[in-house]
Fold this sequence. Notes:
single chain; about 270 residues; alpha+beta; Nuclear Transport Factor 2, Chain: A; 2 domains; 6-stranded mixed β-sheet; 4 helices; about 20% helix; binds 2-acetamido-2-deoxy-beta-D-glucopyranose; signal; DUF8021; DUF8021 domain-containing protein
Amino acid sequence: xxxxxxxxxxxxxxxxxxxxxxxxxxxxxxxxxxxxxxxxxxxxxxxxxxxxxxxxxxxxxxxxxxxxxxxxxxxxxxxxxxxxxxxxxxxxxxxxxxxxxxxxxxxxxxxxxxxxxxxxxxxxxxxxxxxxxxxxxxxxxxxxxxxxxxxxxxxxxxxxxxxxxxxxxxxxxxxxxxxxxxxxxxxxxxxxxxxxxxxxxxxxxxxxxxxxxxxxxxxxxxxxxxxxxxxxxxxxxxxxxxxxxxxxxxxxxxxxxxxxxxxxxxxxxxxxx
Length: 273
Ligand SMILES: *[C@@H]1O[C@H](CO)[C@@H](O)[C@H](O)[C@H]1NC(C)=O
Ligand SMILES: *[C@@H]1O[C@H](CO)[C@@H](O)[C@H](O)[C@H]1NC(C)=O
Ligand SMILES: *[C@@H]1O[C@H](CO)[C@@H](O)[C@H](O)[C@H]1NC(C)=O
Ligand SMILES: *[C@@H]1O[C@H](CO)[C@@H](O)[C@H](O)[C@H]1NC(C)=O
């Protein structure tokens, strides 16, 4: 009896020790950058079985994907979400022979092994794609950690991101946009305008437009959320209800959206528009 309860205690203790921490997630995103730079997925702490790898919502063999190509990375940003044991990384590869902007979400298990890697991989012909422009602007933005006193809750950060996506289907939804607010959509940028004209306001889309399949990574320290999603309407070669893989990285400062980065995949060049 006593032996059993001791075992139980030990099992409980090891579970606590194995909890997800920011520093373990930072190790995972650093390893991801090294893996993508060298084209060697084996540099990642991958789960030994049942690894799910996909690009643009298509499951594939990790050894056949972009992660198995050495890519020169010019710039990167990551979010770390200990509550979900998840990470997000944005890679800007403008000087690579084949330019890319890649958004990647990774999920880790309780042994801190990666079980899921999914990426939105954009390149020439995708929505507003221009890796040179993306690099030029992202480098100038300030995404410093938010001081504890000014940090927003997960709910506020997620709510701001959701409102931004929801307004596309309903223009009467109030989005907490800051002034200035810069949107980097592919390589096109609102942030070079004057601070007062620098806004992330959107024209209304034809209704109804429902952005579904949302998958979140939230980082309160950075005030940021990334939302992987399916974006309808854009791809002209398909019916309006058809969704293309998309990801929106959103930085919130004191409750207001400060930066938005969008990457969206097109099936036909420039989504036929
Ligand atoms: C394998 O992955 C699937 C989908 O993520 C999950 O439902 C299942 O429980 C996993 N199986 C094992 C043995 O881990
Ligand atoms: C990725 O970003 C980190 C944090 O800004 C930086 O220290 C590192 O040099 C970057 N790595 C590459 C390959 O750009
Ligand atoms: C891409 O962005 C760069 C830097 O902003 C700009 O000089 C270039 O003209 C853009 N290319 C296209 C095709 O728009
Ligand atoms: C649009 O948003 C407004 C404000 O949140 C809400 O009152 C209204 O019910 C929404 N309309 C639809 C069709 O969802």
